[in-house]
Amino acid sequence: MRLPHVLSRSREVRIDLDHYLANELKSAARFWVGKEAAKFNKQESISALTRVFSGENAARRLAFQLTDKQKRVLEIFARFGPVISGPLLFVEVHQRGLIEKPDNSSRSFYEQSRNDVVNGLREKLVLVSSGYDYYGHSYSRCYPELALHPAIAEAVEPAPPLPWKPSKPASNAKGLLARTSAEPALDLWRVAQSLREMGNWSTVKGNSLSKGARNKLRRMTSLPSAADTPLALPDPESFHYELLR
Fold it and tell me: In sequence order, what are the beta bridge partners of 84?
């Protein structure tokens, strides 16, 4: 069993082919079925795609038809998906060098989106969106939420993590001016455990620990005192003993 990535999203992926235009279905059918799909009408394309997606060879068909870049995009979905948010997908494909950084000056939106590897996989229905929003997003921002087609999701290996390095060296650690809340609780527990091991001990007037009992408890617990650090108590064993008593 493989644990899902912390950024993964889980939801059922439903593909309603009736919501696509005839030319979009024909384009996808040419990829999945073959050149003969160029003569299909909308219903014929739906029938052909339904047969392919319900069969056992859908993933095998992709192995020889996808480019290296397209396969790497699918590996991203195998790592985070099968459903990935648009912002996460945009960062992943950009950092892995699968798309160019979008610009709004030298090239048109149409040219950039046409050459986009993710959009190419959407045209082939290898990647599908939660709704019919193919042209509903700005290229300069990010993609919509997309999912890897369920018929091939199990056959794709996940991508390795992106290499990471700190942007600059970390500064020297600063000393704390206070103890964490867990430290006094741990000290109290150590005193309680040591008293349990001792079984019995001598006390003085007022039921406080005797000097001999305090020294024995100090050796057993090794609690820091004010002589060691300014954040500690001067007689921590007696203090925690009184709390327990």
Answer: 146
Q: Which of 1-10, 41-50, 104-113, 157-166 has the lowest mean pLDDT?
A: 104-113
Task: Name beta bridge partners: 83.
Answer: 9, 147
What is the rounded CA–CA span in Å between residue 72 and residue 78? Answer: 10
φ, ψ for residue 147, nearest 5 deg? -135, 150
> What sections of the chain are H helices per DSSP?
22-32, 42-54, 58-62, 68-80, 86-95, 109-114, 117-123, 182-198, 211-221, 236-244
Which tokens is 43 given? 């219903």
- Compute the distance between CA of residue 78 and CA of residue 74 in angstroms, rounded to an integer: 6
For residue 191, what pLDDT is reported? 92
Residues 6 or more apart in contact with residue 205 via CB below 8 angstroms: none
**In sequence order, what are the beta bridge partners of 9?**
83
**pLDDT for residue 57:** 74
Report residue 136's pLDDT band, with 50, 70 and 90 as the boundaries: very low
Q: Distance from CA of residue 79 to its chain's centroid? A: 9
- pTM, two decimals, is 0.58
CA distance 111 to 120: 12
**Mean predicted confidence (pLDDT) in 13-28:** 85
The token pair at 147 is 């999912």
CB distance 187 to 244 below 8 Å:
no
Measured in degrees and rounded to the nearest 5, phi and psi for residue 107 equal -130, 155
Rounded-to-integer distance, Cα 117 and Cα 10, Å: 24
- Could you give phi then psi for residue 45, rounded to 5 degrees? -65, -40
